[in-house]
Amino acid sequence: MGYAIVWLVNTILQLMTWAIILSAIISWLFAFDVINHRNRFVNQVASFLDAITGPILAPFRRIIPPLGGIDISPVVAILAIQFLQIIFNRLSAPFLIGVLG
Q: What is the pTM of this model?
């Protein structure tokens, strides 16, 4: 059971990282007019990714101002997620595996 919980937490953190990366890439494609919001599928994907990543990025966007028009909050959020994953794997995962098996 402990291994399953550790796997689930690590998978969720990795999915959050990939969602932030995909959201940033889609926003760049919109900004450089490679794709547009008129495409229904692209608009739905972008809205879905914004809904998922918005609550994650909002605290970072409140603290970190845009630097020359560039939003670096996704990079900081990814670093924070990676930090949380390392802390979880070093401190909590051995305890969960030891207690729950």
A: 0.90
